[in-house]
Amino acid sequence: IAQDGFAVVFNNGGAIVYGIRPRSFLFAAGQVNQWKDRTSGPFVRSPSFAVRSAAYNNLRPLPEFVAELGVNLIMGGRDGAPTFEKTLPEVYKHVDSQNQAILEQQSRAAMDRTARLAQDCRDADVSCYPFLYGNDFRRWSPVLYEAIITAAPSAQGKPPPTSWEQASLSPSDPMTWKSIEAYVKEFAQQTQGDGLYVTFWDNYGLD
Question: What is the pTM of this model?
Fold first, then answer.
């Protein structure tokens, strides 16, 4: 048996399932209709790909999702809610008190949601990679974006008139990279994953 596969051995009307690791038995359960009626010979599944991922949407219990799709890496929701309070305080101080309170509330709620997802993934013996989408900072956090521009006006981007790219932050300004680094770092810490799945791709004007 390779990777995280499983094997079912039939003998005297019974079946014994062997797995490389705990999630192997979820995969066996997900394919039960392919082997439950057999009476002889081994049934072996050895995945060719070491990493098999899927985006999880919470519409069904995670173990069922893993079993049915045979995945071993879950791409979680975009639930991080950085505040910059500790990672970039020179920007955070430009957020008014009302929005600071909202950011803190969103942060606590996000950490609670992601903690549950991370624990569900550990229980199912699969990796958890939270998903950070896009590269338009205004989509990440409008409140923090305004605070960045207040703290460093030169960081404001200027989208070309014929480009679909939003360019909300200027790539030539040091504050842009400090802000992105702080946001990604805090997002990763909040979401408590085994890694981070990032795609720097936005809707490019397709609003």
Answer: 0.82
